[in-house]
Amino acid sequence: MNDHPDATDATDETYASSTHDVTAEAAAIRRFWGGLGLPGLIDVHTHFMPERVLRKVWAYFDAQGSLTGGTAWPITYRHQEEERRAVLELFGVRAFTAMLYPHKPGMACWLNGWAAEFAARTPGCLHTATLYPEPGVEEYVREAVEAGARVFKAHVQVGAYDPADELLRPAWGLLAEAGVPVVIHCGSGPAPGKHTGPDPIARVLARHPGLRLIVAHLGMPEYEEFLDLAERHPELRLDTTMAFTDFSEGFMPFPARALPRLAALGDRVLLGSDFPNIPYPYLHQLQALERLDLGADWLRAVCHDNAARLFGL
Ligand SMILES: [Zn+2]
């Protein structure tokens, strides 16, 4: 169900079904978390958004534009919304987000309305909201929190704004006080933006040390700079989205010397995947974590327990 008028004109081509066998993949994924003794996975970085917005995102990846660094990016789970949700259930992802984000003013409020409705009709979805530096942001962020938003998403590269923008200050303050985590794409991968990198985030955290930022993609490619920040700020967390995969290691490798620091921060690293917009099977993200060889305790914490604790699940 989708009540946005633009959502009805999707063509079959938009949802060109992949030949990828999700049933076989699901069995392997269930063996992965079952073998760790977990009740399932919690994924803090999955994308669900209004159909017309998602189709624009897919078109962007199809065009192999600057955001992808010109790299081919075939989307593995190019399905209708209901099917994408069912795939997560098949994989045993017991909680997930609906990451969505505006690229211009006047859009966040509409996205938040859609996301509230999506969360209400979608078991397992952590009610997600977003924000943008614009007049009124404090009000709609407050409304979203009061309506039950559990997590926010901010995209510094796509939004092309400074996260330390004065307009965002009251919103960050409100989210810090409410203890609501914010997944923030602020690293300069796969392509840098005017305000990406650790410095603007350091300025935000200097003002709001209690703000629960979750640095998406482990801060790729500024992995070590964001580890520095995490070591200084006990509420800063990192999500694994796309990190350590063959795809990312090919052009933004995680430095092996930083692995002990990643191990030490094991209680603040959270599984994220970027499902459905990934150019490889979901299972590969899990195998990429497993092959780091940081141990079963680290995997249990990252793939489930850290997020369960953060969101009270
Ligand atoms: Zn993402």
From TrEMBL:
Molecular function GO terms recorded: carboxy-lyase activity; hydrolase activity
Stretches assigned to the Amidohydrolase-related domain: 42-313
Keyword Lyase attached: yes
Residue intervals passing through the bilayer: none
Pfam hit, one: Amidohydro_2
Record keywords, A-Z: Lyase
GO cellular component: cytoplasm
CDD domains in the record: metallo-dependent_hydrolases (cd01292)
InterPro entries (alphabetical): ACMSD, Amidohydro-rel, Metal_Hydrolase
Coiled-coil annotated spans: none
Gene Ontology terms: biological process: secondary metabolic process
PANTHER family hit by this protein: 2-AMINO-3-CARBOXYLMUCONATE-6-SEMIALDEHYDE DECARBOXYLASE (PTHR21240), ISO-OROTATE DECARBOXYLASE (EUROFUNG) (PTHR21240:SF28)
Protein name in the entry: Amidohydrolase-related domain-containing protein
Lineage: Bacteria, Bacillati, Actinomycetota, Actinomycetes, Kitasatosporales
